[in-house]
Amino acid sequence: MDLGIRDRIAFVAGASRGLGRAVALELAREGCRVAVCSRDPGRIEEAATYIREAAGISWEHVLPVACDVTDEAQIEEAMLRTVGHFGGLHILVTNAGGPPAGFVDDFDAAQWRAALELNLMSTINLCRHALPHLRKAAAGDGLARILMITSVSAKEPIPNLYLSNVARAGVQGFAKSLALELGPEGITVNTILPGYTRTDRLVELAEAIRARTGSSVEEIERGWAEANALRRIGTEAEFAAAAAFLVSARAGYITGTALVVDGGRVKHLL
Ligand code: NAD
Q1: What is the residue with the minimal CA distance to atom 44 of ligand 1?
Q2: Pocket residues for ligand 1 (CB within 6 Å)?
Q3: Model pTM greater than 0.90?
Q4: Of 4, 27, 118, 207, which one's alpha carbon is 20 to 30 angstroms from that of 112?
């Protein structure tokens, strides 16, 4: 299926590795021009090289931007650089790392604020600073998309992930409000909720649990897999394929939705 996004311009946040980088690669393979951001200039440069080589595209079609998404001024600058380099913006994918695990007594107010900055305020600020450019795209050639990477914890809170549970719920409220407001302008807004997906972060998480509990990484991963209908952990490529569809021309009538990509982990009817 041709997704209809050749030569469109995308900005993918949190893209030096993991789900963000996989989505950027998928969009590059579909012919998009892609700006990728993360905090460390060296790491985002490496990710851009990886994407160019894996997608077999020329150097200028991937723009690495060092940007900490918890810093609004850096977001504003990153958007301006993207639009300056490529000449516009059609697709915004918001993303960042996940907050630490823990229960209610484990975090002070500063840690709560940091998590909300990382996963909620970053999403809001990325959208705010992308919006003028997305509005131009919608009024021009008609394709304008926002996709927010969150977590299955937005649908079904995970017991020891208080910070994530709360921040992701906020993102869902923001996404739905934005979808309703921007619908008349033809801009779609959706969220995509990964379940257990094999990324560097998941490998690090398994290592941390192994060090704490003595269980082997294989046992830990088997436990995660068995909670899913498909009885396995997902791949970055499977996640990226679903994300690319949601920002594509083919998904023009999908807005305000929250798509779980979790191998059947969440057990709700809807
Ligand atoms: P990851 O840690 O492998 O990648 C996160 C990316 O975000 C990295 O490129 C990192 O450099 C970047 N980043 C972190 N903080 C940033 C900041 N302040 N500014 C700019 N960039 C920043 O994580 P992942 O596994 O790819 O997951 C991506 C998101 O999806 C996370 O929020 C995670 O909690 C969520 N999630 C992942 C899974 C999973 O199984 N992988 C499951 C549920 C939810």
Answers
A1: 151
A2: 14-20, 37-39, 68-70, 95-98, 118, 149, 151, 194, 196-197, 199-202
A3: yes
A4: 207
